[in-house]
Amino acid sequence: MSPQILDNALAAVGHTPLIRLEKIAKQNGLKCNLLAKVEYMSVGGSVKDRIAKAMVEAAEKDGVLIPGKSVVIEPTSGNTGIGLAMACAIKGYPVIITLPNKMSLEKEASLRALGAEVVRTPTEAAWDSPESHIGVAQRLQREIPYGVILDQYRNVNNPLAHELTTGPEIIEAVVSTPSTSARPSSGKVDVIVAGAGTGGTITGLSRAMKKAHNNDCIVVAVDPKGSILAYPDELNKAEEGKPYIVEGIGYDFVPDVLSRDVSDIDHWVKTSDDEAFDAVKTIMRQEGLLVGGSSGSALSGALKWLRSEAGQKFAETEGMNVVMLFADGIRNYMSKPWFLNIAMQAEPSPLAGVIAQILKKGTQPTLADIENESFDAL
User: Fold this and answer.
1) Residues annotated catalytic, as ranges
2) C-beta of residue 246 within 8 angstroms of C-beta of residue 297
3) Which of 41, 186, 222, 291 could form a disulfide with 295 if both were Cys (CB 3.0 to 4.6 A apart)?
4) pLDDT per residue over 24-81, tens digit each?
5) Contacts of 192 (CB under 8 A, 6+ apart)
């Protein structure tokens, strides 16, 4: 982040830290460096800030967006909408976001706080149905004068934003961190893991790594069970169409900006909701990072791949740099049952027993009482 005064919030998009997850690596017996690109530290709260800024600026440059006339309309699972609403608040464009009902109330609240109009659509509607978030956005675009859909599913600036910003930031952080005897490093990005939604993130990251940095970098895409993005298609058959809770990744169609070419994405991993949310709890409790559900998918997918035959040599080699993209933070999910279960329904800790003893009416715990509460577990 620049130490200088920034002209507006768009200048604070990106520039997020790459953080070592040493405790999780040790817990899983990994010798490689397990690293996370933590995107909730971007000004709008997610990796999608990057594509929102890129798409708006490119549309202005190309004359697609006309100040004082254009209305931005976008179908989204939420984070792209928040990024667009932020950018358009700064630039003065009205915004309409179409959002499936499954997406969190927090996302809608953030969108409305930034001045966007929000239209909810049925989660179960197929992507090409007139009732889907995509279909409703297209109808609004046809009916509203100067309506513009920037279309993250087809817009080349989606993957390009990650090829030109996210990827180079990761490369710079890895290359600039010296290898030491205590923390050896190969000096390059050896593996990169990210969830696939529109596919722009994983596609852009792959191009940044393979074209300009390390042609041998292994790119692993994570897709939730129930989605159809993974390749080959046989990976999706067992649970195709099954509803899943995790937001922001997975689709029932393959967006144009996702490259499923084996030269771009080396491996696909399918993950479940339970795996994702268990991993979120681990990230929070072990590493202190308040991430969203798709970050849990990225971690669980990375660990699953590192245990596979293809991933074992990376897991067992000191200095190998395995980078995961953590797409957003917990801000958008704090009313969701899966998060409330983590936060409010956890098993009492040994320290809770000590507190209960201290506060128990009319009693004063003895030193023996406190010592018996097994502080080794804290």
Assistant:
1) 48
2) yes
3) 291
4) 999 999 999 999 999 999 999 999 999 999 999 999 999 999 999 999 999 998 999 9
5) 170, 205, 206, 209, 217, 218, 219, 220, 322, 323, 324, 325
